[in-house]
Structure formats: structure tokens, C-alpha cells
């Protein structure tokens, strides 16, 4: 690949030795990543263009149901022949190490808060039940607990205004 213009295409199927991601969605250990690669020789190095397909798993951020998320992404990176600091990655012994590039691309593409579907209603904040299973069983008015002390409060000026209205009628 040291000749500019030379190109190779490869398809790799890799079984993960460790999981990718640490958040609400991860690609678990033992999962398979399918990577379609295109390696192009350039004057400065090897340009690697790839497409990654995998499946991530996690919990819905609203209703806590298990979620399976297809991961489909593209990446492109230049692996330089020289060990110059201007390049993040370099060719070593006529090989490119794709592991950090693929890992970073997959982890950054995972959703921060996955959902089972876009219109997932989530959980009832009072009971903790799924709103989908028990949709609005009763239409009770939920009062903010910070205002609970004022529920029994009756305004004194309502009595005064009624009394003033009576006095005006008598005159």
C-alpha cells in the first residue's frame, strides 16, 4: 500500500473481547461487529474509510424496558507513514490498528438516553407504574407538596368584599 492510488477493500467480522460503552447503552462483550473497509494508498499514508454495523443493548430511559439499538456508522481516518505529531494514527510495520478508531466511533454513536420508541410515555411519577399499561386510571389533581400547607387557607379579603358589597346596597 506504499504506492499512491492503490486500493483494497475488506470485510471484517469481529467478536468483541470486551464491551464497548459504559452508559445506558452498550455493545456487549461477545457481540459481533461487521466492518466494511476501504484502504487507499496516499502519498502521506493510508486513508481508511469504513462502515460499522453492530447491535447495542440497554434500558429505555423512560420506562426501563430492555432496548436493542442498531448501530450503523461510518468513519474515515488517515494513518500516516511518518510518526509526526500532526497525525493521530500511524502505519506500523505495514499495518494499521483500527481498534481505537472503531471503538471511539461506536462509543460516540451510542445514545445517551435510549428510548424504546420515540413516543414512550414512561413511568407514572406518583405510582412508578408504566403509563402505557395503566393510562390515567384516575384524573386526580396532584398538588405540589410545597403548596399543601395552603390548601385550607381562606382569604380574609373575600369576606370583606362581600361585607362591603352589602353595605353599599343598604345605602
How is the topology of this model organized?
Layout: E1 7-15, E2 25-26, E3 32-41, E4 45-59, E5 66-80, E6 89-90, H1 99-109, H2 156-170
Parallel strand pairs: 5-6
Antiparallel strand pairs: 1-3, 2-4, 3-4, 4-5
Q: Major β-sheet, in short?
A: 6 strands, mixed
Shape: elongated
Q: Estimate percent helicity.
A: 10-25%
Helix count equals: 2
Query: Which parts are unreliable, with pLDDT below 50 for 5 consecutive residues or more?
Result: none
Q: What value does the Rg take, in angstroms?
A: 31 Å
Percentage of β-strand residues:
25-35%
Determine the mean pLDDT: 84
* Beginning-to-end CA distance, first to last residue: 107 Å
User: What is the count of β-strands?
Assistant: 6
Order of helices and strands: EEEEEEHH
Helix- and strand-based class? alpha+beta
Molecular structure report:
The protein has 171 residues and is of the alpha+beta class. The protein has two helices and six strands. Strands 1, 2, 3, 4, 5 and 6 form a six-stranded mixed β-sheet that branches. A hairpin with a 6-residue loop joins strand 4 (45-59) and strand 5 (66-80). The longest helix is centred in the last third of the chain and has 15 residues, at 156-170. The chain is elongated. The protein starts with 6 loop residues before the first strand and ends with a helix. 12% of the residues are buried.
